[in-house]
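# nightly structure sweep
# worker-07 picked up a monomer target from the shared queue
# config: single-sequence mode, recycle default, output format = structure tokens
# input follows
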Amino acid sequence: MRISNHVPDLSALDLLLSVIELGSLGRAAQAHGISQPSASSRIRYLEQLVGAPVLHRTSLGSVPTATGDTIAALAQDVISAAQRLDSGITRIRADRDGHVQVAASQTVVEYLIPRWLKELRARSPQTAVTLNACNSTDVGAAVAAGRANLGFVESPSLPPELAGTTVARDELLVVAPPQHPWGRRTAITIDELAAGTLLHREVGSGARTAFECAMQKHLPDWRPNALFELSSTPAIKNAAVSGLAPAVLSSLAVARELKNGSLTAVAVSGLRMHRSLLAVWPVGQRLTGPARDLCSIALRMRTAG
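# output follows
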């Protein structure tokens, strides 16, 4: 229901109760952290709305008029209800700021988010974090359904129910053990890659989706020839290092293996697979509390890096 414009705001009612309790407009102003002229202005505003004086000012202080007593009696329940509302909102904000649920793709979980969470803990040591590692499709579903406050995905595009911003960038690389024929080549062709047998992440993973999109731009009818589909990036790396087959993995995931020589990056003529890693949240909503803080940390570290 619509409240009449004759109803004063809570600050004026609260001030009136304080004047009656303390016996002085000056002491009430001090208790509310405002100047006496500001307190006088609020009381005049209240009297204008009511249409009658609410205080009688004397040399000894201020006492309520009959109208003031009536307004004060009615205001007690209003102010008590407002205080309960304030306490409830404080509890809600404390619960919100005390816990954040995050869903993130494996690449983000394994190679990026530990640094972000370390910074979040330094900023908000009391914040508890629940982190669910899953593929990008499942991350989007968790965020859209409200099971996560914030998500991080590797997908090249977002469903319409999600908004997002880029927090990191990487490149998908074809990698093979040095003894593999591809590892001894200067480059292979896209057709050779398309005909090759590879180790793949499962359907729904951001890396799998990005790789398929990149290939189908060149070969619209191409479908992956998967030797194994694995839901774990470390498992794919270990299988590739052992010589089982080449794989397509994030540059973040294979940096150590490329450095120590257990894997070789295979150049593919005419194919580069740069991509963005995104923070996501439901369309029409704003990030708040620790979810907002974590996203801003990720953005700042991207800029710094």
